[in-house]
Write a structure and sequence with these properties.
The structure holds two protein chains of two kinds. Chain A is α+β, with helices and mostly antiparallel strands. Chain A has helices at 15-26, 62-78, 98-110, 120-126, 147-160, 210-216, 280-293, 336-340, 356-371, 397-404, 420-427, 435-442, 454-464, 470-488, 494-510; strands at residues 2-11, 31-34, 50-51, 83-84, 88-92, 116-118, 136-140, 143-145, 164-166, 169-177, 180-188, 194-204, 224-233, 241-244, 253-257, 260-264, 268-269, 302-314, 327-328, 331-335, 345-350, 411-413, 418-419. Chain A is built from 15 helices and 23 strands. In chain A, helix 13 runs antiparallel to helix 14. Chain B has a domain at 106-254: Rossmann fold (3-Layer(aba) Sandwich), CATH 3.40.50. Chain B is built from ten helices and 19 strands. Classes of the chains: A alpha+beta, B alpha/beta. Chains A and B meet through helix 7, helix 13, helix 14 and helix 15 of A and helix 4 and helix 9 of B.
Chain lengths: 518, 417
């Protein structure tokens, strides 16, 4: 069995784990990060993409609101390349209580948010598709996050400071000597080989899965996965993030992300965070809810449906800032030494994407104490790789690049403007790419055709370059088609139903994928 | 002068009905909102390929297939008439050199290298029937995104035709003269009509040939002069050359479309694209006219007979609303799921809720209204608009369109007489 020694072993390659890896590496620790799948495949790659201003928590969870407002400012400074500065609006629709708007405004100011009330006419001028019956509007510093880009930047930054990152390495055993955790054994999900990592401290950053990881070490973490359903619409229905100004509930936010608008979300407790099925009822609930913010929403082209599991933490776990709610969106660092008498293990539980940096800082502070070392946190000011110019991305980025410097190579994905050169650059970063990993890195297959045209191209090209064997290329294509089906199968109406028919024509009629050899 | 017959839809079914009506002496107008499915399709004529086991004799196995699928649109047409429609198509498409036997499926390679059953193919694909095995040199064009010769050849080499004969395949990649960025299928087709480009390709292939008996190339050998381009390449290479269909847009599909459009014009018929049917006027059990929007103006077009061939959900003939309402767009004909499940299945490769969607018709192919009675005595439906088929999984689409389009024209003609 291969073995390696490290200061900190981080389990979980979502935003939390990537943030912890970046922070630890900047403080001079040797860090190894593992994930059972590709990075950002859990909750981090399955949220609505909102960079919180804090507005959603202002009234109900002031602690979270304060954290969001502060972290929002920091992320804009250090991670511009992963963010779009869309701005946000909170609007009182005819169904929302106007008294809430006053409470909201006061709470937002108390939380340190930048907020301005704007005349309804101005809001409607800026957002022509917004419900003309809104009665109040507040401008806030919401934005949108490209989660894959952000996590990729954090990990590349960590690697540049000596970190080791291992995707597709699933923890099968936590190594425990008496009441001390000394590392873990991972199984490479692609080769079946085991790798042993001996660590001074293990950080459980598995989010909604952190209960499962803690159990491997014989500890209990009462994380409660809360499933949220989202629907992507094939248009930018608004320039800014649109929020209903009321106590947060289901389907009250529309986030413009890249080429789409995402509506979210629901909150249902689930036993298993891997339960990502979306029912037709949940999807209908979302598109009906969208009507209130953007009349005609239902008639827009729905592209895809997905869900993710929030790592909710009950108050009994001692979350700070829980206020009067039974669960908080804030985070807690659990030192299992003090809590359970099991040294060498720290769980970072709860939290949200927007506060990933703060979560990491708090976690690494505890880790350093455990390791008996000292180092200042540097993540407040250290700029992530790719964000040096401090330019936010915007929807026209790829088109602008293509027009300024026309590529010599063909586009492989017309929907998202991905060229063969882009593909070659990404696959050179590491071996063993699945088509779905490439989707996360390049957005291939995320546009209207949902892979109908590009999946075959990518599989064929990677085979031609020797990165896939024949059977691998076939199974990669099958797996990708199956994965995409998961998100479109409940969209049985409108233009996407028509597209689904065309894709089926291509896969079955033109290629006969069903009768391809294994 | 009035129009005898109006056909809605310019895909295979609509064009077959229009051509048959025109050949019988009717004045025919084809109206279509888009271009129809033809320019997207590989232009191979599928009749029946899987039931779900591989079908060798499509015409002969129709009866057995219908026993397991009594709601399938083939129930509407006697096997003899299915056969007659195929024979008629072979004759009509002689200029494109269509070949095939309605009682014997061919097994042709797909762009991924599966061996796919189909019945009739144009001459440019004729040498690609590997039912009896063969050794193939698959030629890729460098920079062409929609054809990956190495993967195709490696998959094809594992093909297992029921004859037990061996299929061997090897791939090479060649560069075309000219701008390497212009490698979209339409532009490739145009360039391959240029003699120097074709000559260089032919020389290159010939120099890389070993013992292979056949040469497979992506189906981009020209558009207007495809027969000439194919013939010339075959002469240059010195082996039988065949085209392998690529994903849309399809050059063979566009060739067939142009051929059918011209054939109709020669018979005095007209195809009007960009014409969306928005409504109709009926008196009693007779349909009098359809309302059509062209160039932002609505006009009323009267006729004696009407054929509805607007396809299903894939082409916009039928739409689904977010609330689950399924609607045939022009007449509001009754829509059926054709026995498909109500809820989606997890496995993609299964019969899904929309897979068999279509309109319901009586045994005379007349669309039914909400009450189950035919909407009109002089309106017939054909092709992918009909409920009950899974054309791409069964490999049955063109056969259904040919047979039901052919029969719709006959029924319309008989009603007029």
């Amino acid at each position: 069995m291969n073995a390696l020694d490290t200061d900190v072993l981080v389990i979980g390659g979502g935003s939390t784990g990537a943030g912890v890896a970046w922070d630890s590496a900047l403080r001079g620790l040797h860090v190894t990060l593992v994930d059972r799948q590709d990075f950002a495949t859990g909750t981090s790659g399955r949220f609505h993409g909102l960079l919180h201003s804090g507005g959603r928590y202002a009234v109900k969870d002031p602690g979270s609101a304060r954290e969001c407002a502060a972290e929002n400012r920091i992320l804009r400074q250090i991670a511009a390349d992963c963010l779009e500065d869309t701005g946000g609006l909170f609007v009182s629709t005819p169904e929302d209580d106007l008294d809430y708007a006053d409470r909201f405004l006061a709470a937002a100011r108390a939380a340190g948010m930048e907020i301005d009330e704007v005349p309804v006419g101005v809001a409607l001028r800026d957002e022509p598709r917004l419900n003309p019956k809104i009665r109040r509007a507040f401008r806030v510093q919401d934005g949108s996050i490209d989660s894959w880009k952000m996590i990729s930047a954090l990990l590349r930054g960590a690697q540049a400071h000596g970190a080791t990152v291992l995707p597709y390495h699933k923890v099968v055993r936590v190594i425990r000597q008496g009441d001390r955790v000394e590392g873990a054994v991972m199984e490479d999900q692609r080769t079946g080989e085991e790798v042993r990592v001996n660590a001074g401290c293990v950080v459980n950053a598995a989010g909604a899965w952190s209960g499962q990881v803690a159990q491997l070490a014989g500890c209990e973490v009462g994380v409660r996965p809360g499933k949220g359903v989202m629907v992507a619409i094939n248009h930018r229905l608004a320039r800014a993030v649109l929020n209903r100004c009321h106590l947060p509930s289901d389907g009250d936010i529309i986030v413009p992300v890249r080429t789409v608008s995402v509506i979210g979300t629901t909150d249902h407790p689930v036993a298993d965070p891997d339960d990502t099925e979306c029912s037709p009822e949940e999807v209908h609930q979302m598109i009906e809810a969208g009507e209130l913010l953007v009349p005609g929403f239902k008639e827009s082209r729905a592209l895809r449906v997905w869900s993710g599991s929030r790592p909710l933490l009950p108050k009994t776990e001692g979350a700070a800032g829980a206020g009067d709610r039974e669960v908080s969106r804030s985070h807690t660092v659990l030192d299992h030494g003090a809590r359970d008498g099991v040294e060498g293990l720290v769980t970072i539980a709860g939290g949200k994407f927007t506060t990933l940096r703060l979560m990491a800082e708090d976690t690494v502070d505890v880790v350093l104490r455990k390791l008996g070392r000292e180092a200042e946190c540097r993540t407040r000011t250290e700029v992530l790789p790719g964000s040096e110019s401090h330019h936010f991305y915007w929807i026209g980025n790829r088109q602008q690049e293509a027009e300024t410097d026309p590529p010599d190579d063909p586009l492989i994905c017309e929907c998202e403007l991905v060229s063969q050169h882009d593909l070659d650059t990404v696959v050179a970063r590491r071996p063993n790419w699945r088509l779905d990993d490439i989707r996360r890195a390049l957005r291939v297959g995320m546009g209207p055709c949902q892979g109908g045209f590009c999946a075959f191209r990518v599989a064929g090209m990677l085979h031609q370059e020797g990165r896939y064997g024949r059977a691998e290329a076939n199974s990669a294509l099958r797996e990708f088609v199956q994965e995409r089906w998961k998100g479109v199968k409940v969209i049985s109406w409108g233009a996407q139903a028509r597209q689904t028919r065309l894709d089926r024509w291509i896969f079955e009629g033109v290629y006969d994928l069903e009768h391809l050899p294994e | 002068m009035g129009t005898d017959a109006v056909v809605l839809g310019a895909g295979t079914a609509g064009m077959v009905a229009a051509l048959r009506l025109a050949a019988a002496g009717a004045s025919v107008l084809v109206l279509a909102e888009g271009e129809g499915g033809l320019p997207l399709a590989p232009a191979q004529i599928d009749v029946l390929g899987y039931r779900p086991q591989l079908v060798l004799d499509p015409l002969g196995e129709l009866g057995g297939f219908l026993e397991s699928r009594p709601d399938h649109p083939y129930r509407l047409v006697e096997p003899d008439e299915v056969g007659a429609s195929l024979e008629w198509f072979l004759e009509l498409s002689a200029p494109l050199g269509y070949v095939g036997n309605p009682h014997l499926n061919r097994l042709q390679p797909t762009a991924l290298g599966a061996l796919r059953p189909t019945c009739l193919v144009p001459q440019t694909m004729a040498a690609g029937d590997l039912s009896g095995g063969g050794s193939v040199l698959v030629v890729g064009l460098r920079g062409f995104r929609d054809f990956h010769a190495p993967l195709l050849a490696e998959n094809l080499a594992l093909a297992n035709p029921p004859s037990g004969a061996e299929v061997r395949a090897r791939s090479v990649e060649v560069s075309l003269l000219g701008d390497p960025r212009d490698l979209r299928p339409q532009l490739l087709a145009r360039r391959l009509e240029e003699r120097p480009v074709l000559a260089e390709l032919g020389r290159e292939i010939r120099s890389r040939l070993e013992q292979e008996e056949l040469v497979g190339v992506p189906a981009v050998l020209g558009l207007e002069r495809s027969h000439e381009a194919w013939q010339r390449l075959q002469d240059l290479v010195g082996r039988p050359v065949f085209e392998i269909p690529t994903p849309p847009p399809s050059q063979p599909g566009q060739r067939l479309q142009q051929h059918l459009f011209r054939a109709l014009r020669r018979l005095g018929g007209e195809v009007r694209l960009g014409a969306r049917a928005t409504g109709y006027r009926g008196v009693g059990d007779r349909l009098k006219s359809v309302m059509v929007v062209t160039a932002a103006r609505e006009v009323e077009i009267p006729a004696d007979s009407f054929v509805l061939a607007t396809g299903g959900i894939g082409t916009g003939g039928i739409t689904a609303s977010p609330d689950g309402e399924l609607r045939e767009e022009v007449f509001g004909a009754r829509v059926s799921r054709g026995g498909a499940p109500d809820e989606p299945l997890v496995e993609y490769m299964a019969t899904q809720p929309l897979d068999r969607l279509g309109i319901e018709v009586d045994d005379q192919q007349r669309p039914l209204g909400a009450g189950g009675e035919p909407l009109f005595q002089n309106l017939w439906a054909a092709g992918a608009a009909l409920a009950g088929a899974e054309p791409w999984r069964e490999k049955s689409g063109e056969g259904i369109s040919l047979a039901t389009g052919f029969r719709a024209a006959r029924l319309a003609g008989e009603a007029r007489a």
